[in-house]
Amino acid sequence: MAFPHRLDAPELPDFSMLKRLARDQLIYLLEQQHEVDKLYKVENKPAVSSSEQLCFLVRPRIKNMRYVASLVNADKLAGRTRKYKVIFSPQKFHACEMVLEEEGVYGDVSCDEWAFSLLPLDVDLLSMELPEFFRDYFLEGDQRWINTVAQALHLLSTLYGPFPNCYGIGRCAKMSYELWRTLEEEEDGETKGRRPEIGHIFLLDRDVDFVTALCSQVVYEGLVDDTFRIKCGSVDFGPEVTSSDRSLKVLLNAEDKVFNEIRNEHFSNVFGFLSQKARNLQAQYDRRRGMDIKQMKNFVSQELKGLKQEHRLLSVHIGACESIMKKKTKQDFQELIKTEHALLEGFNIRESTSYIEEHIDRQVSPIESLRLMCLLSITENGLIPKDYRSLKTQYLQSYGPEHLLTFSNLRRAGLLTEQAPGDTLTAVESKVSKLVTDKAAGKITDAFSSLAKRSNFRAISKKLNLIPRVDGEYDLKVPRDMAYVFSGAYVPLSCRVIEQVLERRSWQGLDEVLRLLNCSVTKEDKASSESLRLILVVFLGGCTFSEISALRFLGREKGYRFIFLTTAVTNSARLMEAMSEVKA
């Protein structure tokens, strides 16, 4: 069943303005090309026919530039004369122009920029659709997308007023915030005096909370993403779902009434809801039997179309649920969830390690095996050297030595590490801390944490009570807190931090948590009580549907409305694929 609104929540801003701005800018860029054509004719130069013009709308990637350059050079060899225009979105990088210059085509191509960085996927979800952000920044240390994030925040503050209260965790969050503030200062006065619509903004780095992203999702929308891969707000359901020989592309957002009621539900509740929905729908169809001609006419003109649409969507989601159930039963999903919960709670670690070894030996899935190894590593603050070497050896023997570089990537990102270096640093840190003041000790700890890329998950989990203590069985039909998104076993760290700050109205009392998380941003100002209940959460490196569902639940309970801005929607498989050097 869908959750009721506990408290009145503020209205969400209308994001259609973002679409209109992006569309108008693209039209302007394309019209500029036509103006160039007119100039050619005025100067009595031979105009290039429309069939001899090529316009490339591309992401600023090196491989895209090499492709464009190969086409231009092929035309030159064939003696074909054309005009070429490359429009980069969301921004133009000097490195891309350098590639065109190296390939000898820079003079033949005109370059422009389409600053389309915010794509509204739903009424409360904006995506920058930059899946490469995670690898570029958190693995390669490439900061080129920071400016794109800052520009996006600047656009939002221009459209919807200043953000009175800003909080951030992580180095990327800090850099994005500082660059955004610089842009605000350069255009001072644009938002000055305006009434803020959004009261709080939270900037969160993905590496602050790897655990949530690595856990199996059990809310309906998360499971659909894990099973079928949601892309740009839509999903392709194959014949196994549609019960026909054709696939069906379905847009998953609030306009789908059936989906909107089950998207945030724990999967165990979804079948019951769909069954009840089917009975209600049948009852509405059965009303026709007692109607006279006039009533029947009204029914056909006003209700029948809507009922047929709802029936079609209901069939699709029932098919999706059946397909998910078949796949999860085949994978022994319950045993997998049990192992994940044991890792989160820190119990039966030896049994969990044996389960992962069996998973590897059976060659279930290279991505799944990596995910479980990373979850074990982060929850235990690194693997003991013996286990690390054993699991790594078994993995390479089972899936192939070509995965060796992937282990190097995971280690650099802090996803799969050995305990020994962290233990050594902890010992040194402890001795030094006794010789200096508490404030200095905190800074030293931050420095050591940075070098070791430690997760500190156990300490943070204890401080924030991420593992709920429940007497008896957790009631998933009437959830009591955000832990329901992981079957009552774990409250997402990112969501708990936001909840605590909103309750305390500052970082006050969270000093130890901030020290463990390392690097924070704070800006607090006065704002109206109405705007304070509208909150923008920015995930740098991707967010999961589980986190979105958890914060929607918090909003319903406390009377908040959350807007989500993410560099891309992610899940455990996408994270592992971003780190992998072996492409599927």
Automatic annotation (TrEMBL):
Q: Mind telling me which residue stretches traverse the membrane in this protein?
A: none
Compartments, as annotated in UniProt:
Cytoplasmic vesicle, Clathrin-coated vesicle; Late endosome membrane; Lysosome membrane
Endpoints of the signal sequence:
none
Task: Tell me where on the tree of life, at the top rank, the source sits.
Answer: Eukaryota
InterPro entries assigned: Sec-1-like_dom1, Sec-1-like_dom3a, Sec1-like, Sec1-like_dom2, Sec1-like_sf, VPS33_dom3b
Swiss-Prot/TrEMBL keywords:
Protein transport, Transport
Q: Which Pfam families match?
A: Sec1
Question: Would the keyword Transport turn up in this protein's UniProt record?
Answer: yes
Query: Which GO annotations describe the biological process of this protein?
Result: protein transport; vesicle-mediated transport
According to its record, how does it sit in the membrane? Peripheral membrane protein
Cellular component GO terms, alphabetically? clathrin-coated vesicle; late endosome membrane; lysosomal membrane
Q: Which family does it belong to?
A: Belongs to the STXBP/unc-18/SEC1 family.
Task: Please name the PANTHER family in this protein's record.
Answer: VESICLE PROTEIN SORTING-ASSOCIATED (PTHR11679)
Report the protein name in the record: VPS33B late endosome and lysosome associated
Tell me the gene name: VPS33B
